[in-house]
From TrEMBL:
It comes from the Bacteria. InterPro entries: Hcp_Tssd (IPR041408). This is Uncharacterized protein. It comes from Costertonia aggregata. One of its GO terms (cellular component) is type VI protein secretion system complex.
Length: 235
């Protein structure tokens, strides 16, 4: 049993004071068996008015559909009991009522005509519905591929002729290439610590702050970055 219900629609949450829903089937007068497909699914709502005109706007826009759900709560007022989910829905009736004498809040009376109504495992659809629930659920349940973090596999220095240089072979004033190898790094940025007590480096004419080559974009692997070897700061 539920003692609390709320309407969730277009980012708003409204207290539901009353709601009812009806389904019906036409009967064959000879056999008293159903002779047509089930009809109905239209439901009426009474909600506390919140002062905005979103519901009125939806009512007077004959081509505008909305979606949302009514959530019914258990006795504790916190745990969900069930949801009435509606998709491709027209609001076909709107009435606002306010009476200053009975202490009741202003209330909106609404009638919803959903193209799709889902209550638990039951789905009731109209022929004019737009949403494909099966595709929507499939897209929602598709595993999201975790973005791979770039891995730095290593780096070395080369002179302008392409000869690999050891750290102790770097000379002040020399222009060199830092050759960086990465994995899963293309299109991303990385930072590289080039700390060296005997020398500093310039990149694009600027001395590296703390010997950190920051935020360099990876376009290939391996990739070369031009550096200039400079004297370390004197302390």
């Amino acid at each position: 049993m539920s003692f609390l219900a709320k309407l969730f629609l277009n980012g708003s949450v409204l207290n539901v004071l009353d709601t009812n829903i009806q389904f019906y089937q036409g009967l064959d007068p000879a056999t008293y068996r159903p002779e047509i497909l089930p009809q109905g699914g239209i439901f009426a709502l009474t909600v506390e008015a919140d002062g905005n005109t979103d519901l009125l706007g939806l009512t007077i826009s004959p081509d505008t559909m909305c979606k949302g759900y009514i959530r019914f709560y258990k006795r504790d007022g916190m745990s969900k009991l069930t949801d009435y989910e509606f998709f491709d829905t027209y609001i076909v009736s709107y009435q606002r009522e306010f009476t200053a004498f009975n202490g009741r809040p202003a209330t909106d009376y609404l009638t919803f005509s959903p193209g799709i109504l889902r209550i638990g495992d039951m789905v009731f659809e109209k022929w004019w519905k737009v949403t494909d629930l099966a595709n929507m659920e499939a897209a929602r349940n598709m595993p999201v591929e975790e973005e791979k973090r770039p891995k730095m596999l290593g780096y070395h220095y080369e002179n302008e002729e392409g000869t690999v240089l050891e750290n102790n072979e770097l000379k002040i004033g020399q222009v060199i290439s830092l050759v960086l190898k990465t994995e899963d790094g293309i299109g991303k940025t990385v930072s590289l610590d080039l700390s060296d007590n005997n020398r500093d480096f310039e990149y694009k004419g600027k001395r590296l702050d703390g010997d950190i080559l920051k935020g360099i974009p990876i376009k290939s692997s391996p990739q070369k970055f031009k550096l200039k070897v400079v004297s370390p700061w004197k302390t």
